[in-house]
Amino acid sequence: MTDDQGEMMRRRIVAANWKMNMTSDEAGAFINTIREGINGKEAEVHIIPPFVDIAVVKDALKGTDILVGAQNMYYEDKGAFTGEISADMLTCLGVHSVVIGHSERRNIFSEDDEMINLKVKKALEKGLVPILCCGESLDTREAGKVSEWINAQIESAFSGISAQDAVKCIIAYEPIWAIGTGKVATTDQAQEVCLLIREKIKELYGSETAEDIHILYGGSVKADNCKELFECPDIDGGLVGGASLKPEFVDIVNA
């Protein structure tokens, strides 16, 4: 895609993270109500339901260009890992992308930077698009350590990953204090950190990779605030939580 001056632009991406919501019946019915509103748009759309809904959602999206993602995966191919899901299990279902390192996985389920790096590597190995999450707590922000925190998360997540693979990833900046709270980072705050991430990628891989990689904003993204956020030069779309469970998700995609 090019802008009015003919310069290359990154395609917009909107990803719907349903978290632990929607039964299979609810998922199929909801997709049927929104699919026409989000199909064929300029934005690349990912629907990311719970594992048990993936097959139903995939079926409901037949005939569209909408992609299906997963909310998590383990970094081993198989074995005695009760309750876990492998990358091969996801690809067998036709899954395109997978969320890795969401703050809820880090904070509630104690996933550390090393595990997240292993998951990113495994996703890339298996042809899945990692949607890598990063973000700071309110304490970290108030302590003035946002840059230090975000840079460390990015550096760790991409450790041992080539530029060729890094550019296949999507990065989602989600300030923890804005997830599900109704609070949203100001446009300036969101742009500042997304630019920080792009500069870190430039430091790690060079200008071309930094310009090509997609960086999303997440954290109480809604129909009434998304347009301003998406207009920021270093924000390429959104990772949407609660609003993706409502009809207003169509308006977010159209923004």
What does this structure look like?
- The chain is α/β, with parallel strands linked by helices and 255 residues long.
- Helices cover 41% and strands 15% of the residues.
- The protein has helices spanning 24-38, 54-60, 87-92, 103-108, 113-125, 138-142, 146-157, 163-166, 187-205, 207-212, 226-230, 249-254; strands spanning 13-17, 44-48, 67-70, 97-100, 129-134, 170-173, 214-218, 237-240.
- Helix 3 (87-92) links the parallel strand 3 (67-70) and strand 4 (97-100).
- The longest helix has 19 residues, at 187-205.
- The chain is globular, with a radius of gyration of 17 Å.
Please describe the topology of this protein.
Elements: E1 13-17, H1 24-38, E2 44-48, H2 54-60, E3 67-70, H3 87-92, E4 97-100, H4 103-108, H5 113-125, E5 129-134, H6 138-142, H7 146-157, H8 163-166, E6 170-173, H9 187-205, H10 207-212, E7 214-218, H11 226-230, E8 237-240, H12 249-254
Parallel strand pairs: 1-2, 1-8, 2-3, 3-4, 4-5, 5-6, 6-7, 7-8
Structural features:
255 residues; alpha/beta; 8-stranded parallel β-barrel; 12 helices; 8 strands; disordered N terminus
Order of helices and strands: EHEHEHEHHEHHHEHHEHEH
The parts where pLDDT drops under 50 for at least 5 residues are 1-8
Q: Report the CATH topology name.
A: TIM Barrel
Provide the spatial order of strands within the biggest beta sheet: 1-2-3-4-5-6-7-8
Average pLDDT, rounded to a whole number, is 94
Structural class estimated from helices and strands: alpha/beta
CA-atom Rg in angstroms: 17 Å
Shape: globular
- CATH architecture classification name: Alpha-Beta Barrel
Number of helices: 12
